[in-house]
Amino acid sequence: MIDDLTRAGVETQLVKLINKLDRSKIEPCLCLLARRSEFAASLLPEDCPSHWLGVTSMRRPSVVGHAWRLARFLRREKIDVLHVDLPGSTLFGIPVGWLARVPYLIRTRRDLGYWMNWKDRWAGRVYSHLVDLTITNCRVCQQSVIEVEGARPESVVILENDIDLAKFRDIPTLAAQKPAGRPRVVGMVANLRPVKAPEVFVEAARRVADRHDDVVFRIAGEGSLRGPLEQQIRDLGLSGRIELPGHVVDVPCFLSELDVAVLCSDSEGLANVLLEYMAAGRPVVATRVGGAEEVIDDGVNGFLVPAHDPAALAEAIERLLSDSDLAARLAAAARSRVEEEYDAPNIAQRFESLVFRMMGIPDAAQTFEATVTDGCRAGQVTVPRQVSYRGDPRDSTSARHSVEGVLPDQAPQASVGPSLAEGTKSTTGAAHAAFGHQEDCYRFVPDRLKRDTVDDDDPTELAS
Could you give the CA distance from residue 148 to residue 114 in angstroms, rounded to a whole number? Predict the structure, then answer.
């Protein structure tokens, strides 16, 4: 569940995640807080149903009706995990999910709560005790949730941003790409919102432009500050030097033209675009906020400057423009750092593992032993450990399984081993079921994902 879909980093990360989920394990459904729009609809993930709530304000009486409809939707679709992203969806979705008795609640926090007032912090502390898991994208965000919102340390995990490094590998290195006489380009990719501080970039650009006639500046992005920025650029006499191309669909192409990449936010978690700058092999100047220090070693693979300091920002940009060897060295180190540490296994697979562990199923790919007895032979067979439950998986009395295979009229008895999942106590009533015999092979399928479930305690239902 998310507020709305735009081309911003958080929304892009969520769409990437949904597209990469293994549909044999998880059936996603995207719920959007906003009204349906053609632009947002064009960004929807593939092979994923969507549900639009049409909430326009949390302060209108109509929000009660929207909450009721969401609760009915969650119960009708038998949603097992509600994963909320962004502040609006968290504020709205967590209490509704809790009241609707959704078995598991997950929230995501990719910032340091710069937007929070005392009411938001109080709500955050309450929600910390309602959710089962909080996902962050860097250590500083993880620590913030624990310290500011009182979350249990064991319930806050890190799942790094999903960077498709292959898209950036074909970008030429900084030293190899510049033909003679071409203007040098300093740029940034950011939503034009106050927290991104684009006005600081413009002021720094003025200082650099005064001393470097061959440099132009570009800000890719849209937002509420576009009008004020255009006015600031006119007032500074920089209309011919600073370009605002708007949203850029092909970010690697945009970055390939930069000589220096800038991130001048006042607050961040771990900015997705910072990792993209580094993957593209651009020398980076970033503000010393949030998770920037986790990936940038000042003077080694980029420069860090204080937030909201255009003079310091301009000075760092000029150092890179004036020393091409330094710029190339920092750019190469930045690319190496990202390729070494962020070319991780599929982030979707790691997310799936987090979900299974939260549900008490630590490793859905492992196997366990089941003893099968059909009256004439007995033996050990190995079945996938993808066993799930309707209800709390730690409560063995709620165990339910799906079975694939031919079910004969006289179904034999199968006794599942002593533990269905780590930390799960199994009882005789929950661990026994009638299964069909097919070449000594029995396969358990997660019934949270496939709805053709049967009741363990009713062999008649199973056989039918």
Answer: 12
pLDDT at residue 113, rounded to an integer: 85
Identify the pLDDT of residue 331. Answer: 96
Helical (H) or strand (E) element with 49: none
Higher pLDDT, 399 or 137: 137
Contact predicate 47/26, CB 8 Å: no
**Which of the four pLDDT bands, split at 50, 70 and 90, describes residue 426?**
very low
CA dihedral 412→417→421→422, nearest 10 degrees, is 170
Per-residue confidence band for 342, with pLDDT thresholds at 50, 70 and 90? confident
| Sign of torsion over alpha carbons 252, 254, 260, 265 | negative
* Strands of the 156-158 sheet, one edge to the other: 81-84, 104-109, 133-136, 156-158
- Average pLDDT along the chain: 79
- CATH number assigned to the domain covering 165-341: 3.40.50.2000
CATH 3.30.70.270 for domain 9-158, yes or no, is no
Picking from 66-80, 250-264, 437-451, which range would have the lowest pLDDT averaged per residue?
437-451
Question: Token pair of 184, please?
Answer: 């040098």
- Choose among 260, 422, 232: nearest CA to 328: 260
Q: Where does the pLDDT of residue 362 fall: very low under 50, low under 70, confident under 90, or very high at 90 and above?
A: low
Structure tokens at 438: 């097919």
The DSSP line for 152-184 is -GGGEEE------GGGTTTSPPGGGS--TTPPE
Torsion angles phi and psi, residue 280, rounded to 5: -80, -5
Query: What are 208's two structure tokens?
Result: 């650099």
pLDDT band at 176 (very low <50, low <70, confident <90, very high): low
Strands 367-373 and 378-384: antiparallel
Is there a common fold for 9-158 and 165-341?
yes
CB burial of 96-131 (b: ≥16 within 10 Å; e: otherwise) equals bbeebebbbbbbbbbbbbeebeeeeeebbeebbeeb
- The strand ranges marked E within 175-327 are 184-189, 215-220, 242-246, 260-263, 284-287, 303-305
User: How far is the C-alpha of 410 from the C-alpha of 413, rounded, in Å?
Assistant: 10
Conformational region of residue 102, where left means phi above 0, alpha means psi within -120 to 50, and beta covers everything else:
beta
Strand 413-416 and strand 454-455: the pairing is: unpaired
Helix (H, G, I), strand (E, B) or coil at 80: coil
pLDDT of the residue at 446: 38
Domain locations along the chain: 9-158, 165-341, 359-463
Tokens of 88: 């609006």
CA 422 to chain centre: 27
